[in-house]
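Sequence design from tokenized structure. All designs in this work follow the same two-part layout: the structure record, then the generated sequence. An example of the structure record is given first.
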């Protein structure tokens, strides 16, 4: 019991000192293992575990998902997705916020990461919403909420990690995450509609696009 409390205290201290979580857990695990089995056995265990994890075939999908998300972000597709959604619903009250959520959902299906989705869409959507004097709470809230779709909508990096650790079929996890992600996106859109109906000043309508402009924006995504 005392060793557990001491290990937790060391972990919390390392986190407060700014040490990354992974290194803090490695430090505590190595110290705890060395206390019971000796320092040489702890070094061997740490090296073997790191090697086995790095050489695991299942984990090879993670850097590829991250690479795909970075390529999508660098290609400017996030900007095209937002422009396409904005062309169709940007003229509605709260339309820019709703376009942000839809674009986040589409980008999530490509990046698999909530952080990548939020970072990419914030650079595209936030300046435009401020241009039309959107309330900062609605603007940042729509970006933050839309970013969470990256966890649910396949391919999700978190689902891959969960599937590997729990030995759950990743394909079934992806299939199970699509519907909740779609429902969550609809609920976010409904929330924006309700908020802007109650208080129209939260999100003013943007410019209405012609069908030619809409088709051009859609072509950019395709």
């Amino acid at each position: 019991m005392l060793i557990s409390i001491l290990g937790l205290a060391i972990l919390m201290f390392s986190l407060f000192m700014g040490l990354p979580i992974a290194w803090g857990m490695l430090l505590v695990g190595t110290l705890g293992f060395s206390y019971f089995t000796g320092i040489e056995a702890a070094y061997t265990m740490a090296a073997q575990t790191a090697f086995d994890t790095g050489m695991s075939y299942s984990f090879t999908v993670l850097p590829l998902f991250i690479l795909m998300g970075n390529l999508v972000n660098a290609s400017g597709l996030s900007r095209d997705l937002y422009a396409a959604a904005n062309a169709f619903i940007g003229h509605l009250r709260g339309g820019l916020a709703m376009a942000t959520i839809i674009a986040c959902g589409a980008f999530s299906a490509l990046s698999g990461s909530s952080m990548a989705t939020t970072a990419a869409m914030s650079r595209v959507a936030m300046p435009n919403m401020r241009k039309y004097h959107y309330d900062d709470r609605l603007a940042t809230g729509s970006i933050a909420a839309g970013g969470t779709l990256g966890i649910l909508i396949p391919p999700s990096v978190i689902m891959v990690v969960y599937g590997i650790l729990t030995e759950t079929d990743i394909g079934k996890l992806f299939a199970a995450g699509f519907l909740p992600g779609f429902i969550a996106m609809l609920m976010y859109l409904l929330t924006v509609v309700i908020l802007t109906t109650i208080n129209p000043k939260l999100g003013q309508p943007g410019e209405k696009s012609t069908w030619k402009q809409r088709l051009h924006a859609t072509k950019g995504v395709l």
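The chain has two domains: 2-55, 60-221. We note this feature because it recurs in several other targets discussed in the main text.
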